[in-house]
Amino acid sequence: MRRIVIVSNRVAPVNEAASKGATGGLAVAILETLRESNGLWFGWSGNVHEAPVDTPKHSAPTQANPFDTVTVDLTPAEHSGYYNGYANRILWPILHYRSDLMEYHSEHFRTYQRVNANFVSQLVPLLREDDLIWLHDYHLMMAPRDLRQAGVKNRIGFFLHTPFPSADVFATLPNHRELIASLCHCDLIGFQSPTDLRSFEDYITHEAGGQVHANEEFEAFGRQFRAQVFPISIDPDSFAGAARESSRSNIANRLRESLDGRALMVGVDRLDYSKGLPERFLSFEHLLDRYPENRRRVTFLQIAPYSRSEVPEYKLIRSRLEGLSGRINGRFAEVDWTPLRYINRGLARKTLAGVLRHSRVAVVTPLRDGMNLVAKEYIAAQDPEDPGVLVLSRFAGAAHELKEALIVNPLDYENTGEALQRALSMSLEERKERWSAMMETIRQQDITTWRKSFIAALEAG
Ligand code: ADQ
């Protein structure tokens, strides 16, 4: 097998990332790919230093992890311009259709280019002739061009974890052409869903003046390449195992006792404006308003750890959610019932699996999401004899696969509230039918299929 070189913004500490069950599907997929190919993982260490050491830090292979990791540090200026500035305040909102939230400064783009170029110049001396290079996500969109300019002839693949927005939205980004022209230096570009691929095709045809041929072959900016859909997934059987074990744990018992027989509805997200949390709270309020029989009978648990706290838009969404949760609880709570439990801490994976198993309804209603792995984790965690119901946004990549969920438009919070009511009153027979179909889908397209099919397509050329 050829060596696979994975390049991502962040290289997770291998010891933390290495234990299966303790980590998310993506980290496991990356580690498995690296182990199988005695690979190399390159990216940012997570450290920020005023004067970063020039030479990257190398961790040698071990028996348990027979691959190399090489990390670089960022200066405070790079961290602020490349990571917080261009990646998180410009690309992230645009990729999630939120041009209104973009804070554009050309200086951030220059820093982004410089950091991509630094990554590449540190990586190139480590490359071997027949390595396959797999770049991950929107932090590294200029890297393909830099690699080619440095004379790298290897096959290069790029996978975008976020959505790719409609061509018109993407064109609101001042540097859109440079980014896509760079991506076209890849041999393979992977997207999460058919919607993303369609938007990209539209961009190539109408903005870039390129051509889309049969077999997902593309021609643009003087380059030929392929672009395909590779929906990311999870390891359903290992997640189901964790959920079964965790449902007997102390925390699960405490949760059960605290609910006192009430049905649990759950939401689990990083605190991000793309996840549709205010709209979700409003839909819960609608449920209690319109269907008062649910008062005292249902508890909504929203777990939303803070992310990207330095970015102003994230501070705003935090205070909005604090206001809304206070209002809903103030309006409906009773001495012995708090309708909405809003928690800003992450849970250990196993605990999370147990919480999902115990939830009658999962509310996964992002305004936009590349995939949304929580939707798949919820399905995997269910008890086959008494499965819960998934309420899923049509704008999550997962909606293309999990068609038996109750599909909603999260902006229509009243309609989502109606779907919550339908979920709470669904018969066991219907729940089982919907769940089995979705579980089958996840088993067929799991995380191993995802990584292997991407590598096979990259290698095939
Ligand atoms: P994220 O936006 O982080 O990822 P998502 O796919 O839902 O979104 O979550 C990633 C992982 O984090 C999941 O395994 C989930 O269990 C875990 N997680 C989320 N909230 C948690 C919490 N409160 N406590 C514990 N664990 C939590 C980006 C894209 C997505 C895409 C993924 C993978 O935005 O669209 O699905 O990458 O490609």
Q: What is this entry, summarized?
A:
With 461 residues, the chain is of the alpha/beta class. Helices cover 45% and strands 18% of the residues.
Describe this structure in words.
The protein is of the alpha/beta class and 461 residues long. It is built from 17 helices and 16 strands. β14, α14 (373-381) and β15 (389-393) form a beta-alpha-beta unit. The longest helix is centred in the C-terminal third of the chain and has 21 residues, at 312-332. It is globular. The two termini are 16 Å apart. The structure holds adenosine-5'-diphosphate-glucose.
- The overall strand count is 16
Largest sheet: 10 strands, mixed
Spans of at least 5 consecutive residues with low confidence: none
The percentage helix is 40-55%
What is the average per-residue confidence, as pLDDT, rounded to a whole number?
95
Return Rg in Å. Answer: 22 Å
* Estimated share of beta-strand residues: 15-25%
Attached small molecules? adenosine-5'-diphosphate-glucose
What spatial form do the alpha-carbon principal axes imply? globular
